[in-house]
Amino acid sequence: MTTTTRRAEKPAALLVPSPGRHRRNSKAWAPWALLAPFLLLFILTFAIPILTAVAQSFTKVTRQGVFGEQGVTTEFAGFANYAQALSNQNFIASIGRMLLFGIVQVPVMMVLCIILALLLEGASARWPAFFRASYFMPYGIPGVIATILWSFLYVPGLSPLIDIAAQFGIELDFLGPNTVLWSIANIVTWSYTGYNMLIIVAQLKTIPNEVYEAAKVDGASSWRVARSIQLPLIRPAVILTTVFSIIGTLQLFAEPQVLQSVSPAINSEYTPNLSAYTTAFAYNDYNVAAAQAVLIALVAFILSFAFLRLTNRRSK
């Protein structure tokens, strides 16, 4: 008698992939697929240039021959490029000049944008959309064009302001050694006040109407509402715009470069970015220029970090 044994066959359901598992896998990859274009651009335009600049700041390139036709040697330089950058008195002076610029210009601009934002969001404000667009419009003008426009008010013989002041015996010199820095500050303030104002306006719009109604019931005046309600609640936006302004101060480049052609007081290393640009493209010393760029980034980070620590300590 023969016994036949048959292997149990697996159910068909076990041989077919689970649709739930497929959906879970697709959901896990969906965010990365959406982020892939941004991440690719971020790596190519931000991460790789920064890492390249840091790497070049620690290397030294020696060219044999006039144009390096006899060979190019790259070697590790340690902190030699940083020492050379810090020994450049013009570069150090440019950082000090921008610190003075920021100490004066940033607070003035922040006060202006806060006042404008509060006025535009006031209950009695008329045509707020028109004035918001008008104040923001200078930000849409490129820095080079804005500097050219303002130079017509700075250059003697072209400026009506200088001619009018001369009629009253007042001599104005917007491009002199002691005034050109504040002429640049005026251009920057004119360009970026509206931009910072919009950020603060966006923060003001998040304040619930119930808060204003409660203050009205309590008989609070407009000044009291601004001081006790609006100013404390827009603090995050003010901190954000101040940090942006501190970083932008050290990145100043277009305005002094354009005014350099009409103001002898502006040299080729007037600002830190202009100094790094001159070192790279006028002196062909890209490694020292990379070290200067890294130092500028470090100074911006230190200043921003110190400001954030100070504001956080006061809030506590």
Identify the notable features of this structure and list them briefly.
316 residues, mainly alpha, MetI-like fold, 2 strands, disordered N terminus, membrane
Describe the secondary-structure layout.
Elements: H1 12-15, H2 19-57, E1 59-63, E2 72-76, H3 80-86, H4 89-120, H5 128-136, H6 143-154, H7 160-167, H8 180-204, H9 209-217, H10 222-233, H11 235-250, H12 254-259, H13 272-281, H14 286-315
Antiparallel strand pairs: 1-2
Helix pairs in contact: 2-14, 3-14, 4-8, 4-11, 5-8, 6-8, 8-11, 11-14, 13-14
Instruction: Going across the biggest sheet, name each strand in turn.
Output: 1-2
- What sequence of helices (H) and strands (E) makes up the elements? HHEEHHHHHHHHHHHH
- Please write the CATH class name of the domain at 107-266: Mainly Alpha
Poorly predicted regions are: 1-5
Helix content: 55-70%
Mind describing the biggest β-sheet?
A: 2 strands, antiparallel
Subcellular location: Cell membrane
Membrane topology: Multi-pass membrane protein
GO cellular component, one term: plasma membrane
Protein name: ABC transporter permease
What's this entry about, in short?
Helix content is 69%, strand content 3%. It contains 14 helices and two strands, in the order H-H-E-E-H-H-H-H-H-H-H-H-H-H-H-H. Strand 1 (59-63) and strand 2 (72-76) form a beta hairpin.
Structural overview:
It contains 14 helices and two strands. The chain has 316 residues and is mostly helical. The protein has a domain of 160 residues: MetI-like (MetI-like fold). The protein has a two-stranded antiparallel sheet with strand order 1-2. The chain is globular and about 85 Å long. It is found in: Cell membrane. Belongs to the binding-protein-dependent transport system permease family. InterPro entries: MetI-like, MetI-like_sf, UgpAE/MalFG_permease. It is a multi-pass membrane protein. It comes from Tessaracoccus flavescens.
